[in-house]
Description:
Blueprint: E1 5-10, E2 22-28, H1 35-42, H2 44-48, E3 51-54, H3 61-89, E4 116-117, H4 119-133, E5 140-147, E6 161-164, E7 177-180, H5 184-192, E8 197-199, H6 202-208, E9 216-219, H7 231-234, H8 250-259, E10 261-266, E11 270-277, H9 282-297, E12 308-315, E13 321-323, H10 332-357
Parallel strand pairs: 4-13, 7-8, 7-9
Antiparallel strand pairs: 1-2, 1-3, 5-11, 5-12, 6-10, 10-11, 12-13
Amino acid sequence: MECPVIILIFFSSPGDPLKIGRRMRIGCLAECKTPQEREEKNLLLIRSGHRVCQAVEPVTSHRVWGFFALRAGRKDGRRGRQEKEKEKEQPRPRRRPLMSKPVDDVYLSWLYRRPCYPLEQALAMLKSFQQLDFTHPRQFVYITVFLDMALQKKKKVDPFSSSVTLPHRFAEEVNKVLVFTENEQEAEVAREHGAAIVGGVELVKWILEDEIQADFYVAVPAIMPKLIPLRSKLRRKYPTTRRNSLGTDIPKMLQFFRECHEYAVQDESIIKTRIARLDMPTEHIIANLKTVIHDICTFKPSNFDPIVRRLVIRSSTSEGLLLDLNGILPQVEKAEEEEEENAADEDDQKPVQESVST
């Protein structure tokens, strides 16, 4: 007579018993010496928590009820997980649409859209904030520009930095400019026009060791092969013709870089820079702002959407005010569209005139 054997099947998914499982031979009941061992052999199903394919020994009633209770608990847990998944799949209730304009002076800001101000009105508000708060009138005016860097398909505009000459300077100090040249006459001209440091190859070692630093670096073409070790050190400040920092007209380069204003893209799509002082005339602040914005717009082709998506202006001690972009962005695209429309209208009128003349 063959000894009865308990065989357990461990399924890969408890909820799907039809999947192929793994069989395990638990042992022969004839090897058990005492009834207690036989019962323990028979109850391995409950202890392991898996389903039995063949069991030949009787099981006590309280053990069986424990097994079914465990099984019911697992079903309840499985049902709870399914309900949670259904809740996730259901669409969330739509948020209440924001109202356009508050009626009272005191209101909950998150229930209304952020107001958008014309540039002149925003500057008048910043000046009034300064008077009401009794803050310093010569505080700086800052702008935060949110950019749309996307191009066609997956391409985008790379983060950039640039320097512009503002029509109305607001900084009292001038930039520190270093000039690379080995010609004595050019070095003398550079010193006369305000260069902070002038030198040749001997400056390379000091710059690499951070003993000499400058805001901008200018060079003549003859010395460029000797400045290659500085490429990784200076990075964007490395002299190039694209940035107008490489050339033979040293006085012109010095005049530009000593008074220019530099800005750069941060966090891949944001520009934060100061443009003026709050006590300056409103016309001067507007001119400086438009100069910076027009320079930013040159980094994206005009046949795409404007690179400037949002524009916020603030002072050192005030809140940020969202600006209306009408009248601030360059009007090149609109002018081209108007010319195309006018040309199309003229083409439509020509056949009519010809038919009338005939």
